[in-house]
Amino acid sequence: MLKVYLSGEIHTDWRDQITAAADNLEVVFSGPVTDHAASDDCGVEIMGAEPDKFWHDNKGARLNAIRTRKGIADADIVVVRFGEKYKQWNAAFDAGYAAALGKSLIIMHGADHQHALKEVDAAALAIVEEPAQVVSILRYVLAGRLVK
Predict the structure, then answer these.
(1) 130-148: b (≥16 Cβ within 10 Å) or e
(2) Which three-class secondary structure state does DSSP give residue 30?
(3) Domain contains 59
(4) If we measure between CA atoms, which residue out of 73, 2, 60 comes closest to residue 33?
(5) Total structural domains in the chain?
(6) Does the pLDDT of residue 115 top 90, yes or no?
(7) What would the mean pLDDT of 116-140 be, rounded to a whole number?
(8) Angle at Cα 142 formed by Cα 122 and Cα 9, nearest 5°?
(9) Average pLDDT of the segment spanning 119-136
(10) Structural domain includes residue 15
């Protein structure tokens, strides 16, 4: 069973597209918490309120890092998507962490991010623009041949 961690932007359905198209493959997917409010507020909800927004965010980031580190460490492949609407600094961090661990890294973004992400792309084994391309890569990795 291939373990794939899906990191990156949470404002589109790219994860759903990949998991739906890969439903017949021997792949297990994991990823960060994609409920934006839960992700932002988990630290203060569990460990107590913070009057300063910096510490509010800091608690959430640290708590989310437990899940992220575990997911990336356990993954065979890490897919990181950079979306159009927001800058995903956390996604860049995840890509760097995965590269440092020697994980196979697939980066997904549009052509307009090509220059800004050139260093991230250089660490990747594949750079794609569409979720379907990720699924095609997974099929190829699992089958060892092109599957149409």
Answers:
(1) ebeebbbbbbebeeeeeee
(2) strand
(3) no
(4) 60
(5) 1
(6) yes
(7) 97
(8) 45
(9) 97
(10) yes
